[in-house]
Design a protein that fits this description.
The complex is a heterotrimer of chains A (391), B (252) and C (367). Chain B is α/β, with parallel strands linked by helices and 252 residues long. Chain B has nine helices and ten strands. The chains are: A mainly alpha (391), B alpha/beta (252), C mainly alpha (367). Chains A and C meet through helix 1, helix 3, helix 4, helix 9 and helix 10 of A and helix 1, helix 2, helix 8, helix 9 and helix 13 of C.
Chain lengths: 391, 252, 367
């Protein structure tokens, strides 16, 4: 009675299940390929008829348009692909900041649903219902209208200690990049490593002596110290590029434009409402007995939340929250309606100029697909680490 | 090739082997012959392959090696063969598997109407006859979740009987029931046994085996270790492994 | 043996400091340090700002469509822009005198939608009724028969267009989503991979890119000379998009049906399609009704995006109505608030309904 591997056997006839399965699949593949070929054929014919060029060669040609705001310099003689890169950087900029802010706000509001104060509970509820049930596009447009209407013209900009608030956005002074900042960056990295070591030491010391040591804030202090040391060593550069009131607008410095602010505020408030619901569902999924056991052991409410409820709730929270992060990234595409130059906006301009619809839209889809897959993979990795080990 | 007639034997396993995946050899060289009208109880520790064995008979599981012939039809990849076998073989599950969104009566008439193409009235008459047989006719218009476990299992038995099968398979039919309800289901099974239907039952209920079985089969690690009539099996087990098993379950 | 009889104590009301309004205040507003502080802070903020907002929105607001009043120094919100333009906002560019047609058509459609949500109406006549209502709808809107003047689909707009796009895309995406969900669970690798690729592809890109695709690329896909209406193209885009998300919802329901159900059906001789139709789908779909409603609410909100591809649904028609009029243009914020309110009423209503349905389903499970 040896445990050999199973033999393979095939039986070719219409009455065989395996054969039928194969036939169905071949038919399905033929149908899909057939439809695909039909569409591609029509597209080529139509494009030839209308004299539309095809191909991605346009990407190397000069763009011919300027982009309102960008993390790095861009001018209209530079190529299309560089323009798209600017668009991608703008999308990532608003997405990453948006994800961080909406997580913080969403978690606070989600936890607020369990507060003892009826005012806090009520406000959380009102917030969620209000921001969830109004389409995001309208929220973005509203914020844009508010920002552009309420803010004063540049000649009458509000001054706040070196920063200017006007219709051109929030202009703030930016440090002039020099060697000292590279060193500061290196110092931050060293600080991160040192903070890691500190955390391990603090954890062990807590287990041995029972003295609670601050894990989070000390780590932050260490990282900042690292940056400070690096900056000092690099010569302590303090030169700032200050904004000043020019003839028609605020010049120099860096600015958070109203477009960026509108997209950011709209996205953050909208997504925070959904994240709040996910957090609430996650906390509710932890059975009430856990909370009672924690109280019986003498933990106060904050400890109970941090040590018992949230870690268990994480398992339930992570997949839907990942979804919300992806939604936020995709929703940033609505910036095209406001004029914030994200990747969809830039590709749209490129499309209108070159007429290469298929190529431009494919580039946009490719960018988003990569982002989605990347975020999903990252979250899957974190999810598997956070999962409760079972038999 | 698939119509060889094997007289006398209702079910024939001929060197049947089955693997799960590439490594788990769950059925090893099973040779078994079940005569018409015979009542067989299969027992053994969990993981021994008992459920897999009977699930191969109606092709809920596929065997990879060997021949399996049920009522003259060889079971393989042939769709028509599988359909024919499934019409002759009824099955009762440990978890009842009644359809919760249909009433008891609808559960029973579903297959006769949609597979057997019987008109509704006739199907309902036959269904009521079966419900009477398992003594649960008054629950015909209730939903399964409104019944107790024992009642649900009796409905499941009636549902299987509606197809007038020649063979009935029972996969631990009483394991999910409260102890008080085990008797009502066993009574139904004993009554059925008296009517001459071929039965294969995987169960831990040794009392049932003693009362009804013609043959008890003991399985372990995918093999048939011992088979004998109940009297000889319980009182005089021939194999060390069977002795060991019986001492554990009949011990106190 | 001396036995005493049981003397029950009469029930008395609770003492004053554990019940009643004072106790409620203590429990809900002053329970502990943090709560008391938050009550003070929030209470203070609310008392300061809420009267100001109410003042702007109601007390000093201008309700009459008087442009001069709105421009006045002490004016609050200018709701006059709404009373002046509401017909344009709600009905879009549909010819002014014929606006009763979209009104009637939309009322019929909405009525049928509400009816379809009620379990008691899930009978055989529902499907034919839908066909009849849809036919009547298009007849009324498009016209060109029975004395009704012809109105091209380009001029359909406003709230009727929103409702039309949302309901039609739900109806059409449902069968597609069903097939894709079943396909994703199939044993046949070719079909399973195709369905998985479709879902992951669509879910990985924003709706706006699908709409751009519908707007710019669909005309290229068509054989020469065949023109498709922009409404049809956009509807196709939204339907394909919604189908991917709905497929995932349905797949969740399919996964929740216990495997024993399909096994039992197999032993009873039912074929694959019979099993799906009579056993698996009824159970799976009734489990995911809340998910389906959520999907519909999402699609309803997503219809606002068609503004970007130049179809004037509610958002677009509002912008058109107010921005094109130099007089009223400064008050576009009131316009946004108005349509935000309309969307809120619809979406909140639907989500409350879905919660009610969920409660009903849970109640019936614990019979």
């Amino acid at each position: 009675m040896s445990s050999s591997t199973p033999p393979k056997k095939k039986y070719w006839s219409w009455r065989s299940q395996a054969f039928r399965g194969l036939v169905y699949q071949v038919l399905a593949v033929l149908a899909i390929v057939g439809v695909g070929w039909f569409l591609v054929h029509n597209t080529l014919v139509n494009m030839r008829m209308r004299g539309i060029q095809s191909g991605f060669d346009f990407l190397t040609q000069p763009a011919g348009f300027d982009i309102g705001e960008s993390l790095f310099a861009f001018s209209s003689e530079q190529s299309y692909w560089r323009a798209i890169l600017v668009g991608v950087s703008n999308t990532l900029r608003v997405a990453i900041i948006g994800i961080v802010l909406s997580t913080v706000i969403g978690t606070v509001i989600g936890i607020g649903r369990f507060s003892r104060s009826i005012l806090v509970r009520g406000l959380s509820r009102v917030y969620v219902e209000m921001f969830r049930n109004i389409p995001l596009l309208i929220q973005l447009l509203l914020w844009y209208v508010v920002l552009t209407e309420v803010l004063p013209v540049s000649s009458e900009a509000i001054t706040l200690s070196g920063m200017f608030l006007s219709k051109g956005g929030l202009s703030y002074p930016v440090p002039v990049w020099s060697f000292g900042y590279y060193l500061a960056g290196a110092g931050v990295l060293v600080g991160l490593v040192a903070a890691g070591f500190y955390r391990r030491w603090a954890q062990r010391s807590f287990e041995v002596t029972g003295q609670v040591r601050s894990l989070f804030w000390m780590s932050v202090v260490i990282v900042l110290l690292g940056g400070l040391v690096g900056w000092l060593v690099g010569g302590a550069p303090t030169e700032l590029d200050r904004p000043f009131k020019g003839e028609f607008s605020i010049e120099n410095g860096a600015a958070l434009t109203p477009e960026f602010l509108a997209v950011l505020i709209g996205l953050v408030l909208y997504t925070a409402a959904f994240i709040a619901e996910v957090v609430r569902g996650g906390i509710q999924s932890v059975s009430r007995g856990q909370s009672e056991a924690a109280s019986a052991l003498g933990l106060n409410r904050i400890q109970e939340m941090r040590l018992v409820m949230l870690p268990q709730a994480m398992r339930v929270i992570i997949p839907p929250v990942t979804n919300q992060y992806l939604n936020l990234t995709k929703n940033s595409s609505l910036a095209v309606a406001i004029g914030y130059p994200d990747v969809v906006s830039v590709a749209n301009t490129a499309l209108n100029q070159t007429g290469r619809a298929v190529e431009c839209i494919s580039v946009v889809m490719l960018v988003y697909l990569t982002t989605s897959l990347g975020t999903s993979l990252l979250m899957n990795w974190y999810n598997s680490r956070a999962a409760i080990k079972e038999r | 090739m698939s119509e060889t007639k094997t007289t006398h034997s209702m079910i024939t396993f001929d060197k049947v082997n089955k693997w799960y995946g590439n490594n788990f050899h769950v059925l090893r060289d099973i040779d078994l012959s079940v005569a018409k009208g015979e009542r067989i109880v299969i027992c053994g520790p969990s993981g021994s392959g008992k459920s897999t064995l009977i699930r191969c008979i109606n092709r809920l599981e596929e065997h990879q090696q060997g021949r399996l012939v049920v009522d003259g039809t060889e079971l393989n990849d042939d769709v028509k063969a599988i359909d024919r076998v499934r019409k002759e073989v009824g099955m009762v599950f440990q978890q009842f598997n009644l359809f919760p969104h249909l009433t008891v009566l609808e559960n029973l008439t579903l297959s006769p109407m949609w597979v057997g193409k019987l008109p509704k009235k006739e199907a309902e008459e036959k269904a009521m006859a079966q419900l009477n047989r398992v003594r649960i006719a008054e629950q015909a218009n209730k939903y399964p979740l409104q019944l107790s476990g024992g009642q649900q299992q009796r409905v499941a038995i009636a549902r299987a009987l509606c197809l007038k099968p020649k063979i009935m398979l029972f996969d631990e039919p009483t394991s999910a029931l409260d102890p008080e309800m085990v008797k009502e289901v066993l009574d139904v099974m004993i009554a059925m046994a008296d009517e001459g239907i071929t039965m294969l039952c995987v169960t831990h209920e040794m009392g049932f085996a003693r009362a009804v079985a013609d043959r008890v089969i003991f399985m372990d690690q995918g093999q048939i270790v011992e088979q004998n009539n109940p009297h000889d099996f319980f009182n005089n087990p021939q194999n060390e492994r069977s002795k060991d098993f019986l001492s554990k379950i009949l011990g106190h | 043996m001396n036995t005493t009889t049981f003397q029950p104590i009469a029930a008395r009301p609770a003492p004053a400091n554990t019940s009643g309004p004072l106790a409620w205040i203590k429990a809900n507003l002053l329970a502990d340090w943090a709560t008391a502080v938050s009550t003070l802070v929030i209470g203070g903020v609310l008392l300061w700002y809420v009267p100001q907002i109410l003042n702007w929105a109601f007390v000093k607001a201008v309700w009459l469509p008087s442009f001069d009043a709105c421009q006045g120094k002490d004016a609050g919100a200018c709701w006059g822009v709404i009373s002046e333009k509401y017909r344009l906002i709600i009905f879009g560019r549909y010819p002014f005198e014929e606006q009763w047609r979209p009104l009637v058509a939309t009322l019929i459609l909405t009525g049928l939608l509400v009816l379809s949500c009620m379990r008691t109406c899930w009978k055989f006549w529902l499907a034919p009724l839908w066909l009849v209502v849809l036919a009547v709808y298009f007849l009324l809107m498009y016209g060109n028969v029975l004395n009704l003047s012809k109105v091209d689909t380009e001029r359909w707009g406003g709230l009727p267009l929103t409702i039309l796009l949302a309901s039609l895309s739900l109806i059409m995406s449902f069968p597609i989503a069903l097939l894709i969900a079943l396909g994703r669970r199939s044993n046949l690798p070719a079909i399973r991979s195709f369905c998985t690729v479709y879902v992951e592809l669509i879910r990985g890109v924003p709706l706006i890119s699908v709409l751009f695709m519908a707007s710019f690329m669909f005309p290229l896909f068509m054989p020469q000379g065949l023109q498709i209406d922009v409404l049809v193209r956009v509807l196709a885009g939204i339907t394909l998009f919604a189908a991917a998300y709905l497929a995932e919802v349905i797949r969740g329901g399919l996964q929740a049906v216990p495997k024993g159900q399909t096994e039992a059906a197999a032993t009873l001789g039912l074929s694959y399609w019979q099993t799906q139709r009579k056993i698996v789908l009824p159970q799976a779909l009734s489990m995911v009704v809340p998910g389906i409603m959520n999907s519909f609410i999402g699609t309803f909100k997503d219809t606002s995006l068609v503004t970007i591809v130049s179809l004037y649904e509610l958002t677009g028609s509002m912008k058109l109505a107010i921005s094109s009029d130099a007089d009223w243009m400064p008050f576009i914020m009131e316009g946004y608030l108005f349509i935000a309110l309309i969307y809120f009423i619809f979406c909140y209503g639907m989500s409350r309904y879905s919660q009610w349905v969920e409660k009903q389903v849970n109640k019936s499970k614990l019979r």
